[in-house]
Amino acid sequence: MSGALVAFPTETVYGLGADATNASAVARIYEAKGRPSDHPLIVHVSSMEKISRWAREIPVYAISLARDFWPGPMTLVMLRSELAKDFITGGQDSVAIRVPAHAIALALLSEFENMGGLGVAAPSANRFGQVSPTTSKAVEEEIGEFLFEGDLILDGGPSLVGVESTIIDCTSSTPKILRPGAITREMIEECIGQSILENTNSEIRVSGSLESHYTPKAEVILGAMAEPGEGFIAFSTVKTPDGAIRLASPATIEDYARTLYAALRSADAQKIKRIAVLQPEGDGLAIAIRDRLTRAAGKEII
Ligand code: AMP
Ligand code: MG
């Protein structure tokens, strides 16, 4: 992977990877995504033993989290080592690291490490602000035109989790959830034996850090029934309103996460203008789904 890009499947969403030590390769990720350069990337490695290269301080609780949830949908942010340059951390003194739970991703990472590679920097393989891809076809549609000969898109079928990893800030004495995901607050608290903070819809965020993200072209309306001709996403127990176009009918919360992004994409493919969504209630994965939906709707998270 000498400076090339490789889009690869993970259990959360597809990533767009490059050698995390290669400035010009990483610059191509930013170009392909159209992403501002102060927006950091996640370094992917094949096992937790590899994190001491990238982090200079690893709290004891981070080791517990890594043992319990890696490989898996969890990203740990730690104080960076000298290896983690500004071009992957967005100029911050911290670096985000993950071991994905996906056979193809792990094979890619191990192979790369066998060749002397130290880590693969990868954000989600979508244009900045758009919906993350959960299939190789969605990757092709998002960033295909920015790939050259020698770059690759690996196909691993649809992502099993479907929403991005839980990001946990491990730079102070207590961990803090920066982005909710499939590793839930309850799971983290049980693992480390203490209660933690979560940036959820119920917590106030500094104004200015709010952004619309994960947005399809269609307008997303939360908590409303669909009118005729509009898209509709709700649990399978809810009937489709007359004339509405059903985009997803998940039976479980895991199904909801897994099918959400494909449903938003299919609305755009069908040129649907508005999508009415009945959000899942409750804690756990529902918090991550509501977080993404709120951003998809372009609403402030307050
Ligand atoms: P993705 O959103 O999947 O494209 O992955 C990149 C995300 O990881 C960024 O948007 C940040 O939210 C998060 N991230 C990466 N590095 C850091 C860091 N050093 N501190 C805080 N968040 C980070
Ligand atoms: Mg992303």
From TrEMBL:
It catalyses: L-threonine + hydrogencarbonate + ATP = L-threonylcarbamoyladenylate + diphosphate + H2O. It holds the Pfam family Sua5_C. The keyword RNA-binding does not apply. Residues 1-183 form the YrdC-like domain. InterPro entries: DHBP_synth_RibB-like_a/b_dom, Sua5-like_dom, Sua5/YwlC_C, Sua5_C, T(6)A37_SUA5, TC-AMP_synthase_SUA5. GO terms for biological process: regulation of translational fidelity; tRNA processing. It is an enzyme of class 2 (transferase). One of its GO terms (cellular component) is cytoplasm. Its EC number is 2.7.7.87. It is found in: Cytoplasm. Keywords: ATP-binding, Cytoplasm, Nucleotide-binding, Nucleotidyltransferase, Transferase, tRNA processing. SUPFAM superfamilies: YrdC/RibB. GO terms for molecular function: ATP binding; double-stranded RNA binding; L-threonylcarbamoyladenylate synthase; tRNA binding. PANTHER family: SUA5, THREONYLCARBAMOYL-AMP SYNTHASE. Belongs to the SUA5 family. This is Threonylcarbamoyl-AMP synthase. It comes from freshwater metagenome.
